[in-house]
Amino acid sequence: MIKNIQKLKNFGIFQDCDNSAVQDFGKFNLIYGWNGSGKSTLSNLFESLEKKTQPAKFPSAEFTVNCESSVAITHNNLVNSVLNIHTFNQNFIKENINWDNSIKSILLVAKEKIDERKKLDQLKAEQQKDKEKYAKEQTEITTLETELSTFKTKTARLIKTSLQTIDTNEALPQTNESWLVLTGVGRAPLEPVW
Question: 0.85 exceeded by the pTM?
Answer without folding.
Answer: no
